[in-house]
Design a protein that fits this description.
5-stranded antiparallel sheet, 145 residues, Chitinase A, domain 3, elongated, 4-stranded antiparallel sheet, Thrombin, subunit H
């Protein structure tokens, strides 16, 4: 029986790490007891990362070196927003450089990186933390389910 490679739509058990090139892991599940289960196309993984999984076979470990345009793109100035403190939950505490999760009116959450805190407002960068960066995407397909 030959080993099948990954195709779009597959459900996989996956170990992966994501880090700025040459930097520390931002996300890694290599040390977790269980690998993550991911279905390609369901939005769990960013589409630009999913494409690197296609044609991989279980049991191999790969490190992909991605340029910003292949990963999370360039930061967009319109995603840096100034939010009035009165629009934010009263019990929310902030610190510069902190990553905070905001709940949008539609119920979805969006992570923002706090740039500065003023008396009346907070400047938040909603770009992906890896925008503008070359990244390393390390991956091992444990098995195709």
């Amino acid at each position: 029986m030959s080993v099948r490679s990954v195709v779009p739509g597959d459900t996989l058990q996956l170990r992966y790490a994501l880090r700025p090139r040459g930097g520390d892991d931002l996300i890694s599940n290599f040390d977790d007891a269980e690998a993550d289960t991911v279905t390609l196309g369901d939005g769990t993984l960013a589409p630009m990362l999913e494409q690197w999984l296609i044609d991989l076979v279980p049991g191999e470990r790969h490190v992909f070196l991605l340029e910003p345009w292949q990963a999370f793109g360039d930061s967009q100035p319109e995603l840096i927003q100034t939010l009035a403190k009165t629009d934010l939950p009263a019990d929310m505490e902030f610190a510069v450089d902190q990553l905070v999760e905001f709940t949008m009116p539609n119920g979805q959450t969006l992570a923002g990186h706090i740039l500065e805190i003023g008396d009346e407002a907070v400047r938040v960068d909603f770009n992906h933390p890896l925008a503008d960066l070359s990244v390393e995407f390390e991956v091992e397909i444990v098995r195709i389910l």
